[in-house]
Amino acid sequence: MSTMSTIEDAATPLDLSSIPYLELYYSIPMRLVASLICAINLGVGFIGNLLVILVVLTAKARMLTPTNCYLVSLSAADLIVLVVGSVSLITEMNSVRDHWILGGLVGCQMTVYLTYVGVNTSAFSITAFSVERYIAICHPISAQTACTVKRAKRIIFGVWLFGLVYNSPWIYLAMIKQKSMFNGSLVLPACGHRYNRSNGAYMSLYLGDLVLFYLIPLVLLTIMYSLIARILFGTDRPARPQVVKMLLVVVVLFALLWLPYRFLVAYNSIAPAGYRISSEWYVIISRLLVYSNSAVNPVIYNA
């Protein structure tokens, strides 16, 4: 947080000590909670996801399985979410409200773009991993030809290419705007939307995200893991309870940790201005839950 008593880039130098604290900064409890959870997520998730990538890429050839290829893709996406999203949120929480200080216009565009690339590619990587597990367990004969490292690499390439292209409009739609506060006495650069939030471009992206990267994956995960659980319960495999428990955790965490954020952006894109969700706690917590999902993924999938 800045300790300056005045901000020089304002229209007229302003004495910050004369402004109520909560009009300039987020509340101390909110800043502490958000910063602490972000730091924990970043520390745990960065180490966990990086270890997954390093272990698979540096291990012997026998470690290079289709499953591990998908886990590397998932970990790479989660690293982007954790690093870009957490650093952005921590900075946001401990700066003057809406004051963008992370690299000007390019920093704003890349932060928004990379966050969406990471979040959406993570969802698709989870789905691809789950499809591979379903085929391997429920159709072991077909898996010998369908679940190969070569095919996994092609699918991963397609997932990332789609994520990079699909989210590219954010490079244009995100921009720096000069936000005027206190009757023009304070003017700060803010990272926001190029157009009004009700613009059709934003609505299309938000609703597309909800369907493509949450509803469809959730339905597929539920169906495939239900079929996997049925197959496992019909066998005498000693690891059956552990595997079924892991599958249940995957579906529940994906559904719960992503729901608040997906609902927030989809609802606010279609709701009239006076009816949108504006609770700061809700917005912050929904973002923290997404980052938490990226932090726990390596623990879940490698348990």
Automatic annotation (TrEMBL):
Belongs to the G-protein coupled receptor 1 family. It is found in: Membrane. InterPro entries: GPCR_Rhodpsn (IPR000276), GPCR_Rhodpsn_7TM (IPR017452), TRH_rcpt_1 (IPR002120). Residues 48-301 form the G-protein coupled receptors family 1 profile domain. Its main location: membrane. Receptor for thyrotropin-releasing hormone (TRH). Upon ligand binding, this G-protein-coupled receptor triggers activation of the phosphatidylinositol (IP3)-calcium-protein kinase C (PKC) pathway. One of its GO terms (cellular component) is membrane. The chain crosses the membrane at residues 32-57, 69-90, 155-176, 211-231, 243-261. Pfam families: 7tm_1. This is Thyrotropin-releasing hormone receptor. Keywords: G-protein coupled receptor, Membrane, Receptor, Transducer, Transmembrane, Transmembrane helix.
